[in-house]
Write a sequence for this structure.
């Protein structure tokens, strides 16, 4: 079997896009399996930078099929805009397949997203990206969602859109929000429907056939495992499951085809939005990490919260995703920091624990237990193998893997494709 799943091990923004893009050169297909344009990947190569929110990172490989699977919620307007951005950047041909079972995000979902967040007390806000992702998933589970197969049948789309607006406009009126006009939305979105129609197909059939034929398939997770609806830091989570466990359900493939699972982590930790963050700190070192690492959200532009790497988190995500290899990103950002900290456990009301409590009131009271290791000053951005790293950088990586009980497969020493060091071929 030739499948690899790439998942984030923290709260997202780990560098999955770069790794997926790197691995895509060997893949016959790259598959986004959950989330929507609330996620963001930045790809850098040939002195060009592309920010992707919906389209898989394999889009720059002309022979690679790029799949938007059924577990996604897709904003057609954002998708068309992203395709135009790629065209303007020199990408002229799109080997793209969009699941006919994926749900779509519409203007009323975006307005609902803002409304629901506005109604919460400040301490209860989850820090949503206001992209309409949660409301779209709500419609899906409520069985009133509009799928891509509905969207490309304009008569069906208009009828379902009318039903949705009949319901939601009553809510908007109640809370003093502007109603959404059917004619305005339909006239705009029917054009998007026509533009994406040629890419729509049963992607479950496509992927199963490729796997049966021993093609190499790369599954690209969005966000991170700690944002999982079931196993993340609930309620400060996303509306889907960014774990390897969700891949079969969200793509329509058999679980038997899941092979290797690559967990991607930063050499430190970051988080965007609300929710407790055990290893968070804010001092001059945090400012250096934020500036050197360009730690601002790809989707929101918000400055990311900074923390030391947390191996309690890594062990948690190893368990729920079955991670078989680890890719440590942005190692170069830590260059020049005299002392580095690694969280090895938590202290909760005087007790040492090595797990993430489900109860958020307990989680909030958790304090980090650290070990300290010496940093390095040498420039590592031109490193091409593990042994070329300064000894302290080697020891840092080895300690992270030892404490996480995950084998080191890759690490990154810069944003470019070429600044990726492979220790284990994921497709072998």
């Amino acid at each position: 079997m030739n499948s690899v799943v790439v998942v984030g091990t923290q709260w997202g923004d780990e560098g999955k896009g770069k790794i997926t893009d790197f691995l895509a050169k060997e893949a016959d297909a790259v598959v986004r399996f959950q989330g929507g344009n609330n996620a963001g990947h930045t790809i850098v190569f040939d002195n060009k930078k592309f920010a992707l929110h919906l389209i898989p990172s394999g889009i720059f490989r002309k022979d690679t099929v790029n799949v938007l699977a059924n577990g996604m919620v897709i904003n057609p307007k954002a998708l068309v805009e992203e395709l135009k951005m790629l065209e303007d950047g020199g990408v002229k041909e799109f080997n793209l397949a969009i699941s006919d079972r994926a749900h779509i995000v519409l203007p009323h979902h975006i307005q609902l997203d803002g409304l629901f967040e506005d109604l919460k007390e400040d301490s209860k806000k989850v820090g949503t990206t206001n992209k309409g992702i949660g409301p779209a998933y709500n419609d899906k589970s409520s069985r009133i969602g509009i799928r891509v197969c509905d969207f490309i049948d304009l008569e069906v789309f208009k009828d379902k859109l009318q039903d949705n607006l009949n319901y939601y406009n009553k809510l908007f009126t109640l809370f003093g929000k502007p109603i959404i006009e059917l004619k305005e939305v339909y006239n705009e979105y029917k054009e998007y429907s026509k533009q994406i129609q040629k890419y729509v197909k049963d992607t479950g059939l496509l992927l199963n056939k490729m796997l049966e034929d021993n093609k190499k398939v790369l599954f690209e997770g969005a966000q991170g495992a700690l944002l999982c609806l079931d196993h993340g830091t609930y309620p400060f989570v996303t509306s889907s499951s960014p774990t390897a466990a969700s891949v079969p359900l969200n793509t329509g493939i058999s679980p038997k085809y899941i092979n290797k699972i690559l967990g991607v982590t930063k050499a430190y930790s970051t988080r965007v939005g609300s929710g407790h963050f055990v290893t968070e700190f804010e001092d001059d070192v945090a400012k250096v990490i934020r500036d050197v690492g360009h730690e601002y959200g790809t989707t929101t532009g918000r400055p990311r919260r900074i923390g030391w790497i947390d191996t309690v988190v890594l062990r948690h995500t190893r368990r729920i995703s079955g991670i078989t290899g680890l890719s440590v990103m942005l190692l170069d950002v830590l260059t020049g920091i005299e002392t580095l900290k690694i969280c090895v456990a938590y202290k909760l009301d005087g007790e040492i624990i090595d797990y993430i409590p489900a109860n958020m009131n307990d989680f909030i009271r958790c304090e980090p237990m650290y070990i300290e290791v010496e940093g390095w000053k040498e420039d590592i951005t031109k490193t091409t193998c593990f042994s070329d790293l300064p000894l302290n950088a080697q020891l840092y990586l080895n300690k992270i893997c030892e404490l996480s009980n995950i084998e080191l497969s890759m690490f990154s020493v810069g944003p470019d494709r070429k600044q990726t060091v492979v220790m284990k071929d994921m497709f072998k």
